[in-house]
Amino acid sequence: MKRIEGTFIQFWASMREISAAQWEQEITAMRALGFHTIILQWMQSNGANLFEPSDPFPPILDLAKKHGMRMVFGLRHDSRWWREWGNAEYLREEARESVALAREVYRRYGKHPAFGGFYIPYELWDGSFNEAQMENLRELLHTIGRACRQLAPSSPVILAPFFAGLLSPERFEQMWLKLLQGRPVDVVALQDGVGARGWDDQIEERVTPYFAAMHRACRQHGVKLWCDLECFRLTNANPSRPQFAPASAERVIRQLRVVSPYVERVVIFDFYHYMSPYRGEAHRTLYEGYLKAISKG
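The structure corresponding to this sequence follows.
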């Protein structure tokens, strides 16, 4: 069974107030679980750069280096994505803006020993895309991925799509065989969907077919497959205002067992908000339960 090796961090504006001492606690707790990768989900949200007006990330990078970890930097989050993804001009604009942001991110952090690559935040899913849409989406990924590789040739470019059961696993595989032509990214960190969709009692039947399908597509194009494991559970299924809480360690172990045959690595979404022992009782219970499980092998 694979172990968790890293985490996304969805960096909120309020997190600017976290002190270096608090980040030291968080990163020390991550390292105790064997984590070595932090993926910052985005560095720009709806046009606002998270490194302005003051930059909270150099101290975190220094702590990552101290503890032997690497930090991957996400690029643009834009809420228009969900209504404009089919607009070719919008995608070209996003590609231009993402490339400009990647250059700025690399200028600021790329020479740091803890710099670990780029993450493309646009989330693709198992939709029924026509050929023109597929080509436009593939070009978006290629444009951004190519620029990131030119900046940091030895660092990975990561993408984290999801699935909702809208396509059969067979059609899902065919979709990704097309999108991954030319290897626009180095890593696909496929979201397992268990937390967001409340699949707690259906992990095997919901997750296995799609990870098997993505594994085949990635292998054909030389792309690494990771799992973006959701370590939270759905507490309110209202689609307009879903609410989440930390999952149980037992459920997380089940998730790991299901995806392990197909993936090279597992990262979670996300440690700070759902698994940090400093964030609440349920968070600490998940942390300590998982630590106990891996300590027993």
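The first helix runs from residue 20 to 32.
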